[in-house]
Amino acid sequence: MALIVQKFGGTSVGNPERILNVARRVIETQSQGNQVVVVVSAMSGVTDNLIKLARDVSPNPSEREMDVLLATGEQTTIALTAMAIAGLGKKAVSLTGAQAGIVTSETHTKAKIATISPERVLEALEEGNIVIIAGFQGETAEGSITTLGRGGSDLTAIAISAAIKADLCQIFTDVDGVYTCDPRIVKNASKIQEISYDEMLEMASSGSKVMQSRSVEFAKKFGVTFEVRSSFNYNPGTIVKEETESMEAVVVRGVSIEKNQAKVTISHVPDKPGTAARIFTTLATSGVIIDMIVQNVSVEGSTDISFTLSKDELPKAKAALEPVVKEVGASALHSQDGIAKLSIVGIGMRSHSGVAAKLFESLSAGSINIQMISTSEIKTAVIIEEGRIAEAANLVHEAFHLGQASA
Ligand code: ASP
Ligand code: MG
């Protein structure tokens, strides 16, 4: 007998019929001889609607009250799921985050999980129940309701799995798993069978977001192996786990793309201590999130600094930087949008050579110009013209043979 945590996202519980499907599915898991804990999100659209309602009654609702409000979304789903299971003749009990023993920090609307005391969950399981826990919520040590940040039900599932030492944690969603590239762009993209936490995190941060990154970080920290799979079919999904030696044999796990990027270049920045700090502190104070940064070697006492950011942030960045460009004595600020980032990700890059060369060659074969390059231990990323991103993704995907086998 195994102890299994199954998490269902908003789309998977989006209407009564889907809730009944979830009920049947978890009953099936139980009837195979397992104990089942179910974590659910709010029905799709519900959290957004609640946020809208709050804004309709107040321009600036308090975060404490926001949490009281938002927690009702998941509370609705746990009750309905428990009723659906009971209606199908099996024992089920719903628990709020607090009742499941999830204690969080006091940071309303983005609380961190501090501890979990899952006694009540375990007791309910022992009594033969399927236990349904509300995702995305907990309570402070003083007993105020908190929420864990948007997408936080994933975190609940991972954290509960760690706390009850589940044998298996399954994240059911509306996609089949993690793919070698977006299948809408690369037709023969294949499902990845196994991926390491670090690769999953790199892919998420470079555009292939399947799950909230915080949940993946939490899983890594506590060694929770989990599977991302679809609630609409029975196909096996993608296993996300600690890296193994055999994983390194694959050089590139996947290709991520991110559109809507922009780049800013500040030219002839005087090469002296403090200028980069001045530029990036200004951006940080304005709340602009920066991605790649490239500084050239200085020639005759000055250098060029370029960075990329989301296109939406460009006006804010330019407004903040214009006075600074003059102040530090740089000559000009150039900006450009219409660019995109393509990244290849894989832990195998640590132990293989020629990976970047192969990436550049495949782009050159398509006469695609590389505007910027950046690397990390397990990622190589390039900035190219946005209009050519689909072509580039296909070329690179092909060059690394990601279409067929990708264990
Ligand atoms: N209902 C919350 C949200 O929409 C949490 C979740 O779905 O994971 O962000
Ligand atoms: Mg959600």
What does this structure look like?
- By secondary structure, the chain is an alpha/beta fold.
- The protein folds into two domains: 3-174, Carbamate kinase (3-Layer(aba) Sandwich), CATH 3.40.1160; 255-399, 2-Layer Sandwich (VC0802-like), CATH 3.30.2130.10.
- The protein is built from eleven helices and 18 strands.
- The protein has helices at 16-31, 46-57, 63-87, 119-126, 153-163, 197-205, 213-222, 275-285, 314-328, 355-365, 389-399, and strands spanning 3-8, 35-40, 92-95, 102-104, 113-116, 130-134, 137-140, 145-147, 168-173, 194-196, 226-230, 238-241, 254-270, 290-295, 302-310, 332-345, 372-376, 379-385.
- An eight-stranded mixed sheet has the order 3-6-2-1-9-11-12-10, with helices on both faces.
- β11 and β12 form a beta hairpin.
- α1 crosses α3 (63-87).
- It is globular and about 75 Å long.
- The two termini are 28 Å apart.
- The model has no long low-confidence stretch (mean pLDDT 95).
- Magnesium ion (MG) binds at residues 9-10, 41, 151.
- The site of aspartic acid has 12 residues, from loops.
